[in-house]
Design a protein that fits this description.
55% helix, 6 helices, mainly alpha
Length: 106
């Protein structure tokens, strides 16, 4: 189990993390699985806080370099309200989630 680069994690911090991992093992938990579970919970919470419009804007921004004629007119970025964003703008994306792993995180 990696704890991080020596430049980022001090020896004292690494020792503290190792002690916590030993406590998890003594409690019957797998430290790697627990780390993954905590990460999934954090990501799910982040996903719950983003609106559909924010997600659409992030998607368009991330895909923009792949589109050849983006500057001449991307139909989704010029008039997002015409593509249903206005109707679901106030709803967080978690309301639309179909993630099968989401149930185990609740």
């Amino acid at each position: 189990m990696g704890l991080g680069s020596l430049n980022l994690v001090s020896l004292a911090a690494a020792r503290d993390i190792a002690v916590e991992c030993r406590r998890q093992v003594l409690s019957g938990l797998d430290p790697l699985e627990e780390r993954g579970r905590v990460k999934r919970v954090r990501l799910l919470e982040q996903a719950r806080s983003i609106t559909f419009q924010e997600a659409a804007e992030q998607c368009i921004a991330s895909k923009k370099p792949e589109w050849k004629n983006f500057d001449t007119g991307c139909p989704f970025s010029s008039k997002p309200r015409q593509h249903g964003i206005q109707e679901v703008d106030s709803n967080a994306l978690y309301n639309l989630s179909h993630d099968p792993g989401a149930a185990e995180l609740r």
